[in-house]
Amino acid sequence: MRFAGGQYRSHAVGYLLLAPYLGHDAPTTRPDAGGWARPRLPVIIGLSILNRLGVTALNSLTAITFDMPETARDGTETVAYSYRLNTGYAPRNYATDLAAIDVPLLAVIGADDEASYPDRLEPTLTAHTPAQVDILPDVTHLGLAAASATSEVIQRWLSNVQVNTNTTMNGSRQQPTTGTDRRVLAYETSSTMQAIGLINSPAQRRTSRREPGNADRADTTAQAR
Question: Fewer beta carbons below 10 Å: N end or C end of the chain?
Fold first, then answer.
Protein backbone atom coordinates (compact mmCIF):
# COMPACT_ATOMS: atom_id res chain seq x y z
CA MET A 1 0.00 0.00 0.00
CA ARG A 2 2.71 2.46 0.93
CA PHE A 3 4.73 1.41 -2.12
CA ALA A 4 1.66 1.98 -4.30
CA GLY A 5 1.48 5.57 -3.14
CA GLY A 6 5.22 6.20 -3.43
CA GLN A 7 7.50 7.49 -6.15
CA TYR A 8 8.33 3.98 -7.44
CA ARG A 9 4.72 2.88 -7.96
CA SER A 10 4.99 2.91 -11.77
CA HIS A 11 7.28 -0.13 -11.59
CA ALA A 12 4.69 -2.43 -10.02
CA VAL A 13 2.34 -4.18 -12.42
CA GLY A 14 0.17 -5.91 -9.84
CA TYR A 15 -0.50 -6.03 -6.09
CA LEU A 16 -1.37 -8.81 -3.66
CA LEU A 17 -2.62 -7.86 -0.20
CA LEU A 18 -2.97 -10.45 2.56
CA ALA A 19 -5.18 -9.30 5.44
CA PRO A 20 -4.17 -5.72 4.67
CA TYR A 21 -3.80 -3.16 7.43
CA LEU A 22 -5.15 0.08 5.98
CA GLY A 23 -4.55 2.23 9.05
CA HIS A 24 -5.96 2.68 12.53
CA ASP A 25 -8.78 4.87 11.23
CA ALA A 26 -9.79 2.65 8.31
CA PRO A 27 -13.28 1.08 8.40
CA THR A 28 -11.72 -2.37 8.07
CA THR A 29 -9.66 -2.13 11.28
CA ARG A 30 -11.04 -3.50 14.54
CA PRO A 31 -10.31 -1.46 17.70
CA ASP A 32 -6.69 -2.12 18.74
CA ALA A 33 -6.50 -4.66 15.89
CA GLY A 34 -8.89 -6.95 17.72
CA GLY A 35 -7.19 -6.45 21.09
CA TRP A 36 -3.75 -7.88 20.37
CA ALA A 37 -2.09 -4.60 19.37
CA ARG A 38 -1.14 -2.14 22.11
CA PRO A 39 -0.24 1.25 20.61
CA ARG A 40 1.70 3.72 22.75
CA LEU A 41 -0.34 6.74 21.75
CA PRO A 42 1.72 9.39 23.59
CA VAL A 43 4.85 8.18 21.77
CA ILE A 44 3.11 8.04 18.40
CA ILE A 45 1.54 11.49 18.75
CA GLY A 46 4.70 13.07 20.12
CA LEU A 47 6.93 11.63 17.41
CA SER A 48 4.43 12.55 14.70
CA ILE A 49 4.72 16.17 15.79
CA LEU A 50 8.52 16.01 15.97
CA ASN A 51 8.74 14.41 12.52
CA ARG A 52 6.68 17.23 11.03
CA LEU A 53 9.25 19.59 12.48
CA GLY A 54 12.05 17.57 10.89
CA VAL A 55 13.20 15.83 14.09
CA THR A 56 13.67 12.08 13.46
CA ALA A 57 16.35 11.15 16.01
CA LEU A 58 13.83 9.42 18.30
CA ASN A 59 12.09 7.30 15.66
CA SER A 60 13.63 4.14 17.12
CA LEU A 61 11.38 4.37 20.19
CA THR A 62 8.79 1.59 20.54
CA ALA A 63 5.42 2.72 19.23
CA ILE A 64 3.36 -0.46 19.39
CA THR A 65 3.59 -3.90 21.02
CA PHE A 66 1.71 -7.10 20.21
CA ASP A 67 0.17 -9.62 22.57
CA MET A 68 1.09 -12.61 20.42
CA PRO A 69 0.10 -15.95 22.00
CA GLU A 70 3.03 -18.01 23.25
CA THR A 71 1.74 -20.94 21.19
CA ALA A 72 2.25 -18.89 18.02
CA ARG A 73 5.86 -17.95 18.82
CA ASP A 74 9.02 -19.68 17.66
CA GLY A 75 11.60 -17.10 18.72
CA THR A 76 11.82 -15.35 15.35
CA GLU A 77 8.73 -13.17 15.60
CA THR A 78 8.63 -9.40 16.06
CA VAL A 79 6.44 -8.46 19.03
CA ALA A 80 7.07 -4.70 18.97
CA TYR A 81 7.45 -2.02 16.30
CA SER A 82 9.48 1.13 16.54
CA TYR A 83 7.87 4.33 15.33
CA ARG A 84 10.03 4.09 12.20
CA LEU A 85 8.96 0.53 11.45
CA ASN A 86 5.31 1.18 12.20
CA THR A 87 5.34 4.16 9.85
CA GLY A 88 6.94 2.08 7.11
CA TYR A 89 4.25 -0.58 7.40
CA ALA A 90 1.25 1.73 7.31
CA PRO A 91 -0.13 3.59 4.29
CA ARG A 92 0.34 7.34 4.28
CA ASN A 93 -3.38 7.60 3.56
CA TYR A 94 -5.15 4.43 2.48
CA ALA A 95 -7.63 6.25 0.24
CA THR A 96 -4.99 8.13 -1.78
CA ASP A 97 -2.63 5.14 -1.87
CA LEU A 98 -5.43 2.93 -3.20
CA ALA A 99 -6.48 5.54 -5.73
CA ALA A 100 -2.93 5.48 -7.15
CA ILE A 101 -3.26 1.78 -8.07
CA ASP A 102 -4.11 1.29 -11.73
CA VAL A 103 -2.90 -2.32 -12.09
CA PRO A 104 -4.45 -5.67 -11.04
CA LEU A 105 -5.10 -5.97 -7.31
CA LEU A 106 -5.98 -9.08 -5.31
CA ALA A 107 -6.82 -8.92 -1.60
CA VAL A 108 -7.23 -12.08 0.48
CA ILE A 109 -8.50 -12.24 4.06
CA GLY A 110 -9.78 -14.93 6.39
CA ALA A 111 -13.43 -14.97 7.39
CA ASP A 112 -12.34 -15.37 11.03
CA ASP A 113 -9.78 -12.54 10.98
CA GLU A 114 -9.46 -11.11 14.47
CA ALA A 115 -7.69 -7.87 13.50
CA SER A 116 -9.94 -6.69 10.65
CA TYR A 117 -13.57 -6.78 9.56
CA PRO A 118 -13.51 -9.12 6.53
CA ASP A 119 -16.91 -8.02 5.19
CA ARG A 120 -15.74 -4.39 5.02
CA LEU A 121 -12.64 -5.05 2.94
CA GLU A 122 -14.19 -5.23 -0.53
CA PRO A 123 -16.34 -2.08 -0.28
CA THR A 124 -13.42 -0.17 1.23
CA LEU A 125 -10.99 -1.14 -1.53
CA THR A 126 -13.37 -0.87 -4.48
CA ALA A 127 -14.46 2.61 -3.40
CA HIS A 128 -11.02 3.76 -4.56
CA THR A 129 -9.75 1.21 -7.12
CA PRO A 130 -10.92 -1.96 -8.90
CA ALA A 131 -10.02 -5.00 -6.80
CA GLN A 132 -10.65 -8.72 -6.52
CA VAL A 133 -11.34 -9.70 -2.90
CA ASP A 134 -11.43 -13.29 -1.64
CA ILE A 135 -12.67 -14.13 1.87
CA LEU A 136 -11.51 -17.59 2.96
CA PRO A 137 -13.80 -19.56 5.32
CA ASP A 138 -12.45 -20.75 8.68
CA VAL A 139 -9.17 -18.83 8.32
CA THR A 140 -7.82 -16.49 11.01
CA HIS A 141 -5.47 -13.50 10.78
CA LEU A 142 -2.33 -15.41 11.76
CA GLY A 143 -3.47 -18.52 9.91
CA LEU A 144 -3.86 -16.79 6.55
CA ALA A 145 -0.21 -16.99 5.48
CA ALA A 146 -0.03 -20.76 6.07
CA ALA A 147 -3.50 -21.75 4.80
CA SER A 148 -3.49 -23.91 1.66
CA ALA A 149 -6.51 -22.01 0.38
CA THR A 150 -4.43 -18.82 0.34
CA SER A 151 -1.81 -20.22 -2.01
CA GLU A 152 -4.52 -21.70 -4.24
CA VAL A 153 -6.23 -18.32 -4.64
CA ILE A 154 -2.91 -16.61 -5.36
CA GLN A 155 -1.87 -19.22 -7.93
CA ARG A 156 -5.17 -18.85 -9.80
CA TRP A 157 -4.84 -15.08 -9.79
CA LEU A 158 -1.25 -15.13 -11.05
CA SER A 159 -2.21 -17.55 -13.80
CA ASN A 160 -5.16 -15.53 -15.04
CA VAL A 161 -4.29 -11.89 -14.43
CA GLN A 162 -3.42 -9.80 -17.49
CA VAL A 163 -0.59 -7.37 -16.84
CA ASN A 164 -0.68 -4.18 -18.90
CA THR A 165 2.32 -2.72 -20.71
CA ASN A 166 4.42 -0.87 -18.14
CA THR A 167 7.18 1.73 -18.26
CA THR A 168 10.55 0.47 -17.06
CA MET A 169 13.05 2.38 -14.96
CA ASN A 170 14.79 3.79 -18.05
CA GLY A 171 11.53 4.87 -19.69
CA SER A 172 11.32 2.08 -22.29
CA ARG A 173 8.12 0.09 -22.79
CA GLN A 174 7.67 -3.63 -22.20
CA GLN A 175 5.07 -5.97 -23.66
CA PRO A 176 2.17 -7.30 -21.55
CA THR A 177 2.95 -10.49 -19.68
CA THR A 178 0.90 -13.16 -17.95
CA GLY A 179 1.44 -16.16 -15.70
CA THR A 180 4.94 -17.34 -14.84
CA ASP A 181 6.79 -15.01 -17.26
CA ARG A 182 6.82 -12.30 -14.60
CA ARG A 183 9.32 -11.75 -11.78
CA VAL A 184 8.04 -11.07 -8.29
CA LEU A 185 9.31 -8.52 -5.78
CA ALA A 186 7.68 -8.77 -2.36
CA TYR A 187 7.53 -6.21 0.43
CA GLU A 188 6.62 -7.33 3.96
CA THR A 189 4.01 -4.85 5.18
CA SER A 190 2.57 -6.53 8.28
CA SER A 191 2.88 -9.83 10.09
CA THR A 192 0.56 -11.52 7.58
CA MET A 193 0.25 -9.06 4.74
CA GLN A 194 2.38 -8.66 1.64
CA ALA A 195 2.06 -6.11 -1.10
CA ILE A 196 3.66 -7.76 -4.08
CA GLY A 197 4.92 -5.76 -7.05
CA LEU A 198 5.16 -7.92 -10.15
CA ILE A 199 8.28 -6.82 -12.00
CA ASN A 200 8.83 -7.39 -15.72
CA SER A 201 12.58 -8.09 -15.69
CA PRO A 202 15.48 -9.03 -13.38
CA ALA A 203 17.22 -5.77 -14.33
CA GLN A 204 14.19 -3.78 -13.24
CA ARG A 205 14.06 -5.77 -10.00
CA ARG A 206 17.70 -4.96 -9.22
CA THR A 207 17.22 -1.28 -10.01
CA SER A 208 14.08 -1.06 -7.86
CA ARG A 209 16.13 -2.07 -4.82
CA ARG A 210 18.43 0.95 -5.09
CA GLU A 211 18.64 3.27 -2.13
CA PRO A 212 15.57 5.54 -2.22
CA GLY A 213 15.48 9.24 -1.58
CA ASN A 214 14.68 10.61 1.85
CA ALA A 215 11.01 11.09 0.98
CA ASP A 216 10.49 7.35 0.66
CA ARG A 217 13.01 6.10 3.20
CA ALA A 218 10.22 4.89 5.48
CA ASP A 219 8.89 2.72 2.63
CA THR A 220 11.95 0.50 2.72
CA THR A 221 11.69 -0.04 6.45
CA ALA A 222 9.38 -2.81 5.29
CA GLN A 223 11.72 -5.65 4.45
CA ALA A 224 12.35 -5.98 0.71
CA ARG A 225 12.86 -9.57 -0.36
Answer: C
